[in-house]
Design brief:
The chain has eleven helices and 22 strands. The protein is of the alpha/beta class and about 500 residues long. The chain has a five-stranded parallel beta sheet, covered by helices on one side. Strands 11-18-12-13-14 form a five-stranded parallel beta sheet, covered by helices on one side. Strand 3 (about 90-95) and strand 4 form a beta hairpin. Helix 2 runs parallel beside helix 7 (about 365-380) and helix 7 (about 365-380) packs parallel to helix 9. The longest helix has 18 residues, at about 445-460.
């Protein structure tokens, strides 16, 4: 068992517990993306709370899955190292003679999921049977709209949360939530017993401070962008392009641009990615960029190599954890690389009526959000208990000791994400009395087998070229769990 899993399991099996019960009747959920909708469903099915209010700054459910053709980086900063950026402001779009607010999404035009839909989907709603194995963004948004149908009445759309403050009511913490109508600017303050943060972590881009980058950006305006503002490969036709980063967006955007740019595309990386297939006819993997040089539009790499006449650089370097609406007194973020003082990636340790969804990265997010939501609902209804504060602190310290204080704290690369789903599922089922609430997903052997292989499944899918759009199952790509199981059966005796 890995040190992380030992810490996770021991954290769920502590002997000490909080002496006081929770007094939660009114709950605010910030965000109506996939995790926020899942939270609303699990809290509603717990049948223990008087009010559940969901605040969504967009006009639709789905969060970042709402594509915006607009991709204007209003700040245009290189480098971009401030995790404490102010509240996101909308771009105003002309629509049928009037202005409509739009919040920029990191979705790009031809985005497809990097997760096969049988693994990606929520436990209580299947994708349509004729769905492409790795669905395009439009299909995912439609799926999320269907998933949210039974809780839409709880959602206040075009409503931005601008401030959340703690206020003690005797020994019970309460949360003052100030919201603003995006259309009218009217504000309102309401008090809640608990708050779920489901606003995601794809809002504040990170662009590293590389020597010479700021001057290079001034000399060649708009030659550098962050992946949040990428929309189409067409803007890179016949250009010499460097992609910085090789996580999911870096690999996918690189593959798209590599088909039209001046070849080879250069993919700059510090370490190998489990999603990347390395060198190809279209792409050359290069070292980390250590310097930008205005002369000859050049960059220098960590291995000493120099590339001149670079037309464009796309930073696929991730995002900060940032909560501009939360009181700084909670000390949730320092450098933005992780969310601090959280237990089991969910509960704020000192004030556990503040909870977070989908903080982990390198995961399958929908089922994890479900499992987290199930635990939150049961903890706040007092059907399962949290450890006492010192034990929760010890859990966080043990993860820091093993994984560090940066984004690795939240990285749950397989099998950690599968183990996390199992532990949260089992924890939620300890609730008393039995038979109440919504049961979260559980990954058995089949799901773990598919999760382990999904990078290979994605490669096989991409290798089909234009025929990939006809693929509906992993079996069509040669991945069959039952066949594998029969071939690998251990003989009895």
């Amino acid at each position: 068992m890995s040190p992380f899993l030992r810490a996770l399991s021991s954290g769920l099996r502590t002997t000490g517990s909080r002496s006081e019960s929770f007094d939660v009747k009114r709950i605010a959920i910030i965000g109506a993306g996939p995790s926020g909708v899942a939270a609303a469903k699990y809290l509603l099915d717990e049948e223990a709370f008087n009010k559940i209010a969901v605040f969504e700054q967009r006009s639709n459910v789905g969060g970042v899955w709402n594509y915006t053709a607009e991709a204007d980086d209003q700040m245009r900063q290189v480098p971009r190292t401030n995790q404490h950026e102010p509240l996101e402001q909308p771009v105003w779009r002309d629509s049928v003679g009037r202005k409509q607010p739009v919040f920029i999404s990191p979705m790009y035009d031809t985005l497809e999921t990097n997760i096969p839909y049988p693994l990606m989907q929520f436990s209580d709603l299947d994708f349509p049977k004729d769905t492409q194995l790795f669905p395009p963004r439009q299909v995912v948004l439609s799926y999320l709209e269907r998933y949210a149908e039974d809780i839409r009445h709880l959602i206040q759309f075009s409503t931005q949360v601008v401030d959340v403050h703690l206020q003690m009511d005797g020994c019970h913490p309460r949360w003052l939530v100030r919201t603003q109508d995006v259309l009218t600017s009217a504000t309102k303050v309401s008090t809640y017993d608990a708050v779920v943060i489901a606003s995601g972590h794809y809002n504040v881009p990170y662009i590293p401070n590389i020597p010479g980058a700021e001057a290079w950006d001034r000399a060649y305006p708009r030659a550098m962008i962050h992946s949040k503002f990428y929309r189409s490969r067409d803007n890179f036709k016949d250009k010499k392009v460097i992609i910085v980063g090789n996580s999911a967006s870096g690999v996918d955007i690189g593959n798209q641009i590599g088909e039209v740019c001046k070849r080879p595309l250069l993919q700059s990386q510090r370490q190998e990615s489990y999603l990347d297939n390395g060198q190809s006819a279209h792409k050359t993997v290069v070292a980390e960029i250590v310097e930008f040089m205005e002369a000859d539009r050049a960059v220098r790499f960590a291995d000493g190599g120099v590339e001149k006449e670079v037309d464009a650089v796309v930073f696929c370097t991730g995002y900060f954890y940032s909560y501009p609406f939360l009181s700084k007194d909670l000390r949730l973020v320092s450098d933005g690389r992780r969310t601090q003082h959280v237990y089991q990636q969910i509960f704020q340790i000192t004030y556990p009526t503040l909870a977070f969804l989908a903080l982990p990265q390198k995961i399958i997010p929908f089922p994890i959000a479900e499992c987290q939501a199930a635990v939150i609902a049961r903890v706040w209804s007092n059907r399962i208990q949290l450890p006492n504060e010192p034990e929760m602190d010890q859990w966080e310290d043990s993860i820091i000791k093993e994984r560090g204080t940066d984004t690795n704290f939240h990285n749950l690369v397989f099998p950690l994400d599968a183990d996390y789903i199992r532990e949260l599922h089992n924890w939620s089922l300890q609730a008393e009395p039995k038979g109440k609430g919504k049961t979260p997903p559980y990954w058995g052997e089949n799901e773990r087998w598919m999760r382990e292989r999904f990078p290979a499944i994605k490669k096989a899918f991409a290798d089909r070229g234009s025929d990939k759009h006809r693929v509906r199952s992993i079996e069509e790509l040669g991945f069959d769990f039952e066949v594998w199981k029969a071939q690998n059966r251990v003989p009895a005796g």
